[in-house]
TrEMBL record:
<dbReference type="GO" id="GO:0016705">
    <property type="term" value="F:oxidoreductase activity, acting on paired donors, with incorporation or reduction of molecular oxygen"/>
</dbReference>
<keyword id="KW-0560">Oxidoreductase</keyword>
<comment type="similarity">
    <text>Belongs to the cytochrome P450 family.</text>
</comment>
<keyword id="KW-0408">Iron</keyword>
<dbReference type="InterPro" id="IPR050665">
    <property type="entry name" value="Cytochrome_P450_Monooxygen"/>
</dbReference>
<dbReference type="Pfam" id="PF00067">
    <property type="entry name" value="p450"/>
</dbReference>
<keyword id="KW-0349">Heme</keyword>
<protein>
    <recommendedName>
        <fullName>Cytochrome P450</fullName>
    </recommendedName>
</protein>
<dbReference type="GO" id="GO:0020037">
    <property type="term" value="F:heme binding"/>
</dbReference>
<dbReference type="InterPro" id="IPR017972">
    <property type="entry name" value="Cyt_P450_CS"/>
</dbReference>
<dbReference type="InterPro" id="IPR002401">
    <property type="entry name" value="Cyt_P450_E_grp-I"/>
</dbReference>
<feature type="binding site" description="axial binding residue">
    <location>
        <position position="277"/>
    </location>
    <ligand>
        <name>heme</name>
    </ligand>
</feature>
<keyword id="KW-0503">Monooxygenase</keyword>
<keyword id="KW-0479">Metal-binding</keyword>
<dbReference type="GO" id="GO:0016020">
    <property type="term" value="C:membrane"/>
</dbReference>
<keyword id="KW-1133">Transmembrane helix</keyword>
<dbReference type="GO" id="GO:0005506">
    <property type="term" value="F:iron ion binding"/>
</dbReference>
Length: 329
């Protein structure tokens, strides 16, 4: 890497996170699954554009020059995933792999072929699980890494603190391992503060009341849908203090409870309770390893050409990218 080189990190992290999820979960590579990621990206954009739109039934019969419909995209993605499934099954048949494999796809295939009714899943469930992991395992980590680099580029003092911690734990050459990343306390604080400011699930999530409930001064009957606005909660000064809009990782120095005025449920970047995203630890560990390896080798600062433009498509993306000036240590 040449000194003083400008790079756009969001695209680099998109390829990295896609490669990681492809290899760890599906035993393939970004190149092999690139068309799936491309179709999922198109689908996310289409879904975002149409979330709050209403259409008349007759519209579906009017010819347009718009891109493929979400329904046709879903089918193309399903066909591609089933092709990947057939390839794995063929390898099992030819004894090229041990069983179905120990990755995520292998576990799903084992459940798919399980004769026990309690564990068996359908072909549709198998495809849906793969689609979910492709999106959740790539998009959220990609945006988390991009915003972390942005914030550390702006706040050089935190970049230096994080680098000192990484060098203390791993030195300049050692590849981060599972034991070491658990000791990166400062890095964990930076990740939490980044997730607070740029929550992956920006719009929030829905919950349905399954039994009559008292919420504050409101009585909620069964069947009521509640919208929980994560971004609003993460930027509420009554919860986080008057400096809520500032990047201050040290607010998490004593844990989430102290950071939220003893209301830990107010921090929910990956959901909360039993519905917390199963990939939360995977995403944060991937972020720790990636940023640690960058800090071991480079310093970086924000490019004068950067334009701040958070753009919501499933997760909050940097619409114009994140351009940084990177220098080798």
């Amino acid at each position: 890497m040449k000194e003083g080189k400008e790079i756009e990190v969001h695209e680099e992290f998109r390829i990295l996170s896609s490669e990681v999820i492809s290899r760890t979960a599906f035993g393939s590579s970004f190149k092999e699954g690139q068309h799936i990621f491309g179709m999922l990206n198109e689908l996310m954009i289409l879904s975002d554009r149409n979330t709050f739109k209403m259409s008349l039934p007759i519209i579906r019969y009017v010819p347009t020059c718009l891109p493929a419909t979400p329904r046709s995209n879903w089918q193309r993605i399903a066909d591609s995933i089933m092709e990947m499934v057939k390839n794995r099954q063929e390898k099992v048949k030819n004894r090229e792999v041990d069983g179905f494999g120990k990755d995520y796809l292998g576990l799903l295939l084992k459940a798919y072929h399980d004769e026990g009714h309690s564990m068996k899943i359908s072909a549709d469930q198998l495809v849906d699980e793969c689609k979910t992991l492709y999106v959740a395992g790539q998009e959220t980590t990609n945006t988390l890494l991009s915003w972390m680099i942005l914030l550390l580029s702006i706040h050089q003092e935190w970049q230096e603190e994080a680098r000192r911690e990484v060098l203390r734990v791993f030195g300049p050459d050692k590849t981060p391992d599972s034991d070491g990343i658990t000791r990166l306390k400062l890095m964990g604080m930076i990740i939490n503060e980044t997730l607070r400011l740029y929550s992956p699930v920006f719009a929030g999530f829905m919950r349905v009341v399954d039994k009559e409930t008292r919420l504050g001064k409101f009585d909620l009957p069964v069947g009521v849908q509640l919208h929980i606005p994560i971004m609003a909660i993460h930027h509420d000064p009554d919860i986080w203090g008057e400096d809520v809009h500032l990047f201050k990782p040290d607010r998490f120095s004593e844990g989430v409870a102290k950071a939220t005025n003893n209301n830990p449920s107010a921090f929910m970047p990956f959901g909360m309770g039993p519905h917390t995203c199963a990939g939360f630890n995977f995403a944060t560990n991937e972020a720790k390893i990636t940023i640690a390896m960058i800090l071991q080798r480079f310093t970086f600062s924000l490019s004068p050409g950067y334009v701040h433009s958070p753009f919501p498509v499933l997760a909050v993306r940097p619409e114009k990218g994140v351009q940084v000036i990177i220098n080798a240590l």
